[in-house]
Fold:
Amino acid sequence: MTGSIFRLARGSAMLGGLLLCAITLMIVVSIVGRALSGVGLAPVPGDFELVEIGTGVAVFWFLPWTYLRGGHATVDLLYNRLPAPLRKTILLVGDGLMLALWLVLTWKLWDGMLEKREYLETTFILQMPLWWAYAAAFVGAVIGCLVYLTQTAIHLGLARHPEGWPVESAGVH
Structure:
């Protein structure tokens, strides 16, 4: 089970990377079009809307994998000098708080998605339905909830890392 969730998080991060690559390519095309407007080219319509939405979605798709790989910022100055049981308690409390935060984020994304869909809100230039962005971010938020729940279960001894998972290099304290 943990292996499936870890693969799901990795796949989500890969999709986030592809999305950021597509955004970068679109920005280049838009800048070139803007620079060469004298010869009949033009910027990509709604480029800033696509950047805003795409970046927000990519963040939600990246964060679960970032957490699994130990990529979040930590303050180790005092932490590393604490006794192991206290470090484990701090880790569990932190994971529990982050799981609670992710659950609230997921719930509010769901509510926002339903509201944007109900009121047919769209972006200004492209007239793209806003609920699409909420739905895409919601997928990443659900994966984040599963990741935090799984990692908390691992820290409680109720589950194990997948076979071959590099615990030492993943920033696990």
